[in-house]
Every structure is written in structure tokens, then in C-alpha cells.
Design brief:
- This protein folds into 2 domains: 1-31; 32-105, Recoverin, domain 1, CATH 1.10.238.
- It has a two-stranded antiparallel ribbon.
- It is built from 6 helices and 2 strands.
- It is mainly alpha-helical.
- It has helices at residues 3-29, 35-42, 52-63, 65-75, 85-90, 95-105; strands at residues 50-51, 82-83.
- Helix 3 packs across helix 4 (65-75).
- Helices cover 71% and strands 4% of the residues.
């Protein structure tokens, strides 16, 4: 095989391989945390409950302060000012579960 053919072949392989690896890396980033992992990341002091302060510290940038307060109040079913794991995890269904429910309803 001539050297120019080898170079062209190498360039072609590289052109195909790079986008494929970038796509795989991007797919890995889309994995979402489980409710348990998310709870642990929001529960900064590790006491097993999330206070409104802990919730606001992690959510006000995403939702805005007022929306985060409203969301906390919605999740706090027993209105004790803290979110237990069952209150926190029960507030949002994972996207896959929602898709299955919708598909089964049709």
C-alpha cells in the first residue's frame, strides 16, 4: 500500500472515530442521579433530613428563590419544615417511569 493511501486511510478512521467517542462521552453525562443520590447531595449536614435552607442553597439557582420555596412547601407533606427521604423522593417520578406510564395508558 502506498504511503498516501495509508495517510488517507488513517485520516478516514480518525474522522469516524472521534465523533463516535464524543457521542459516547456525551451520553454518559446524561445519566441522572437517583433520588437517593440527589437527597444525599442536598442534605449537606448528613442528618437524614433536608431543611428549607439546604433545599434553597441547591435549588434557588435552578428554580429561583420563590419557586424553590414553593417546591419545598409542596414536597413537605407533613409541614414540619423538613423533607424526609420519602417526601423528597416521592415528589418527582423518574422520567423513564413517566414514559412507561404514558405508554401503558395509550
Amino acid at each position: 500500500m502506498k504511503p498516501t493511501h495509508r495517510i488517507l486511510l488513517a485520516a478516514l478512521v480518525t474522522a469516524i472515530a472521534l465523533p463516535a467517542s464524543a457521542f459516547a462521552a456525551k451520553a454518559d453525562k446524561k445519566k441522572t442521579a437517583t433520588p437517593t443520590e440527589t437527597f444525599a447531595s442536598v442534605d449537606k449536614n448528613g442528618d437524614g433530613v433536608i431543611t428549607v435552607e439546604e433545599f434553597l442553597a441547591t435549588q434557588k439557582d435552578k428554580l429561583g428563590e420563590e419557586a424553590a420555596k414553593t417546591r419545598f412547601a409542596t414536597l413537605d407533606k407533613n409541614k414540619d419544615g423538613k423533607l424526609a427521604k420519602d417526601e423528597f423522593g416521592g415528589g418527582d417520578e423518574p422520567a423513564e417511569k413517566k414514559k412507561r406510564k404514558k405508554k401503558n395508558a395509550n
